[in-house]
Amino acid sequence: MDQTEFRLRFTLHPLAKQDPAALPHQGLRKAAVLIPLQEIDGELNLILTQRPMHLRAHPGQISFPGGKIEASDPSAIMAALREAEEEIGLCRENVDVIGTFPAHNTFTGFEITPVVGIIKQDFTLRLDPGEVADCFTVPLSFFIEPRHRHRKEFLRKGRYYSVHFIPYQQRFIWGATAAIIDHLCRHVSLPEEIR
């Protein structure tokens, strides 16, 4: 799928008011992530990062650039753009924000607002080693294929939770990142692609 087709599909489908996977509870820490889409050889790719092993929270996990919404951030969109610039060197002026998804609540205590953005021009990665151990791209077409996206129920503190996961090559994408990817794919898929 190229940028033109993605934009068309994204705007044709109405955005849900609430993430169907959101867990209702109060007192969540607000965060935002950028879903950066980059066209490479005529095909859109998602840019993902891997967190360093030295971090206390979610070491080694695959994630989108993003983090906590600071008091100085005027919006979730600006927080996501700021974090992407700090973490991978993606200048905020180089991102065309085309929308946001409803906040995704996690059982680890975060309310994450996903911000969808298309990268306007190629850029040079500058990874912050304190936040990012690695950065890589995955073709959106891989994620669109339903057989690549999985969900399993887990029991935690007497309650069942759905956990999304996506194996990709030698990597394992799971949790909120996989759930947000699933939401994105369902949003832009045609009926015959959902299965």
UniProtKB/TrEMBL annotation:
Q: Does the keyword Protein biosynthesis apply?
A: no
What PROSITE patterns is this protein classified in?
NUDIX
Residue intervals of the Nudix hydrolase domain? 27-160
Note the superkingdom of the native organism: Bacteria
Q: What EC number is given for this enzyme?
A: 3.6.1.-
Q: Which UniProt keywords apply?
A: Hydrolase, Magnesium, Manganese, Metal-binding
The record's section on Pfam families has: NUDIX (PF00293)
The UniProt GO MF terms for this protein read:
coenzyme A diphosphatase activity; metal ion binding
Catalytic class of the enzyme: hydrolase
**Cofactor annotation:** Mg(2+); Mn(2+)
Q: Which InterPro entries match?
A: CoAse, NUDIX_hydrolase-like_dom_sf, NUDIX_hydrolase_dom
Q: Kindly provide the name given to this protein in its UniProt entry.
A: Nucleoside diphosphate hydrolase YeaB
Please report the organism this UniProt entry assigns to the protein: Shewanella oneidensis (strain ATCC 700550 / JCM 31522 / CIP 106686 / LMG 19005 / NCIMB 14063 / MR-1)
